[in-house]
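Folded chain entry
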Amino acid sequence: MTTSILLNCLIIILARVADVSLGTVRTAAVIHGRRWMAWALGFAEVLIWVLVVSKVITTVNQNLWYPIAYAFGFATGNFIGITLEQYFAYGHQVVRIFTRDGGAMATKLREEELGVTLFQGEGRDGPVQMLFIETERRTATEVVGMARELDPQCYYIVDDIRVVSARRSQSSGPAPQEK
């Protein structure tokens, strides 16, 4: 393999990593209603894609290393894109916890300055409580961890939220606006 082919393969890999990673983050932006971010990421993603795919398509019969580099870049871009999306963790989630010790759990979670709404319910084996906790997506795992420390037998569900209304507390500020 010549230096020129090796350099072109590296450029193809890096470009595919960039455009696929941008596509993954763009998809998250679309899901969370971030129109302008999705627009900018989509523009960059497709521009890179068109430039790279045209290079690979026009040379595929002469050099099989380019489509291999293209595929490698695509697969790596998926991995990096998911990693980036998890790192930024845009949005909010609601953690719903089902427990038989809801009062104590709600008190402890409120001490951590979490907003907790407690509901009474009836399960298969008797009374249960359901706690609703709205949190930023990046902290949902911590909320679940706190709940599991308090009640290792609790059952929980984590759901994404697209829109969160304004909270009552002074420190939380206004409702999130589209960016």
